[in-house]
Amino acid sequence: MKTNLFLTAILLSLTQLIYAQSNKRQYVGLSLGPSITLADFAKTDLSDSTSGFAKTGLAFNFTYAYRLNHNFGVMALGNYSSNKLNNTAYAEGLQKANPEYLVAIESSQNWANGGLFAGPFFRFPIGDYFSFDVRGLIGYFVSYSPKATIYATEVDPPKETFTYYNESARASGFGYVLGAGLKYRLSNYYITAFADYIGSDLHFSNATGWDWNDESFTESFNQKINYLTVTVGVAYIL
């Protein structure tokens, strides 16, 4: 009798496992698209210390999702975004503030931002193949500021050129993702298209460089990182 009950329990467990697997509740995906800088992060006002001078760049998303029931699940998302420094706007601002110089800027490292996030998502099926998903995630966010070289040449003779270096600095903290998008099912794959708003308010405490007198400096600054990613990709259904 005990053996029969034990075998029955095993069969029920296997049946549930097979049923769960046949439901294809999980997927892993990779997507990419533009990273559109917003608000303070995109601002190019040199007199405003919150200006990030960040241009539209490229973003990558890696996603793992597990559907707990028909309309609700949990998700982990890794995001990376690279955004160039707006050299032209930055140089124009410096030259306007220092009209006795002609200013040129070269940046050798972009804004580099990324994070690991987790949280719930809600799924709303549209017919047999489409679904509309909404997600809200929180997590750990990291940013590296650009590395740039500033050349300032005197307008009047002797037209000496001074060089100013800004080194890259690192900051990390809380970040969040608010997004929505569509999934289209093809056999064991999804074609995905998502728009995600990503934000974090960071404090850079050790920004270093060398000024026009070839003297080193260390400074700190706050920067709100805000950008919108519009990504298209493919996901494998597990």
What are its keywords?
single chain, 238 residues, alpha+beta, Porin, eight-stranded antiparallel beta barrel
Which architecture does the CATH hierarchy give at level 2? Beta Barrel
Helical residues, percent? 10-25%
Mean pLDDT: 90
- In what range is the share of β-strand residues? over 45%
Q: What name does CATH use for the topology?
A: Porin
Radius of gyration: 25 Å
Total domain modules: 1
Order of helices and strands: HEHEEHEEEEEEEE
Bulk shape: elongated
What's a quick, concise take on this entry?
The protein has 238 residues and is α+β, with helices and mostly antiparallel strands. It has helices at 2-22, 39-42, 87-97; strands at residues 26-37, 57-67, 72-83, 101-109, 111-126, 130-144, 147-154, 161-166, 170-186, 189-210, 216-237. The chain contains three helices and eleven strands.
Descriptive report:
The protein is elongated, with a radius of gyration of 25 Å. It is 15% helix and 63% strand. The protein has 238 residues and is of the alpha+beta class. It has one domain: Porin (Beta Barrel), CATH 2.40.160. The protein contains 3 helices and 11 strands. A hairpin with a 6-residue loop joins β7 and β8. Strands 1-2-3-5-6-9-10-11 form an 8-stranded antiparallel β-barrel.
